Structures are given as structure tokens and as C-alpha cells.
Amino acid sequence: MTSLPFPLVEAPDEASRERGRKFFAAETTFVKGVVAMSGLPPADRVEICFAGRSNVGKSTLINALTGRKSLARASNTPGRTQEINFFERGPLYLVDLPGYGFANAPVAVVDKWQRLLKNYLSGRATLRRAFVLIDSRHGIKAVDEEILSLLDTSAVPFQVVLTKADKIKLGERDKMLTQVRGALAKHVAAYPELILTSSENGDGIATLRSTITTLTEQS
């Protein structure tokens, strides 16, 4: 039997789940919001970042990971996150990037966000992995391809995290996974496993915590 490309990450064993739980049970604090490369905090620890089109659920996912209800500011208004937001969890920076694609802001402001996003991804040596969030209901769209290609050319390993899994039916999920796997096949920086999550019911949160904790321990 031939295994599928880009399989879903298996749920962590009990020991890995507990390491992830303990890691994120410690306090996570907001460090700063950055609007220019000159404002980045010192590159003195491991970083992972969350990228995704506007309103895909980046801030909500960070809150679910850390067990905080309002650590990262979430909004139903696309384009609300206008800065690169840094959060500190011991030896790790979690970085919430501005949403790309549609944003409820003037074109000049959106262009500025996108330039900052590209400069960050291309120039941050301590960035270990980008987690690219994709809405399970829609799969990978053309607007996602630009960021995936940028990660390829920047040699930044990225892993797709599928969000809002509670909002898609099983039959539709299989079709979406086929589409995502096909789209990722051409991207050399794509990590070969997918993580399926729901911040609403907690599905996949332990898996993502374990994945991030392992990245931190390896560095």
C-alpha cells in the first residue's frame, strides 16, 4: 500500500503530549508589536511564526496553544493584525504575522504590511519553522501561493496547519486534503506532514504543542 504524500501528523504519545502541555502551561507574555525591521527584538532564541491569509485564525490558534483567552488579539475583521507581534515563552518566540490577502485597510497600508512580512521571512536567521495556516473549508488558494513561494526562495521550512476543522464535513475534508497535498507537492520548503486543528473544540492542539516543543528542544 502506497502511503499518501503529506500525511496528517499522528497524535503524540502520552509522554510527548505531557511535555507539550507543560511547556505551554508556563506563562507566555506579549513582547512587542513591530512595524519595521529595525524594531525586531534581539535574535537570541528560537522563533516559530504563524502566517496565513486574513481571518484564518492565527490569533485564535495562539490563544488556544497557550491556554490564554486574549493573549493574541483576535478579530472577525480581516486585516486587524497590522504588526508582527512577538510573544515570549521561555526559550521560544511565537510570532503572529500580519494576515495577507484581503485586508480592511487602504492599499498603501496593506502594501507596507506585506513588505514587512516578506523582509521578516527572508531575513530572520533564528526562524526555525513557519506554520502556514490554511482554512480547512477552502484549502490552498492562489493568494496563499505567493507566501509559499517566498518561503521556498527564503529557505524557510514551513508546515501547513489546517484550521477550523470542526466546520468541515468528513467527505469534504478528504477532498480538501487532496487539493492541499497537490498544491504542496511543488514547494521544496514544505514540511512533509500536515496538522489538522480546531481552536473551537481543541482538536490537534496537543499535536501542534508537541511539534513546537520538539522544535524548541532540538535547537
UniProtKB/TrEMBL annotation:
User: Which Pfam family, just one, is annotated for this protein?
Assistant: MMR_HSR1
Tell me which residues make up the EngB-type G domain: 44-218
UniProt xrefs under PROSITE patterns: G_ENGB
Q: Which cofactor does it need?
A: Mg(2+)
Q: Which UniProt keywords apply?
A: Cell cycle, Cell division, GTP-binding, Magnesium, Metal-binding, Nucleotide-binding, Septation
GO BP annotations, alphabetical order: division septum assembly
Q: Which is an annotated GO molecular function term of this record?
A: GTP binding
**InterPro entries per the record?**
G_ENGB_dom, GTP-bd, GTP-bd_ribosome_bio_YsxC, P-loop_NTPase, Small_GTP-bd
Tell me the SUPFAM superfamilies matching this sequence: P-loop containing nucleoside triphosphate hydrolases
Q: One GO CC term of this entry?
A: cytosol
Q: Does the keyword Cell division apply?
A: yes
Q: What does this protein do?
A: Necessary for normal cell division and for the maintenance of normal septation.
Q: Which family does it belong to?
A: Belongs to the TRAFAC class TrmE-Era-EngA-EngB-Septin-like GTPase superfamily. EngB GTPase family.
Q: What is this protein called?
A: Probable GTP-binding protein EngB
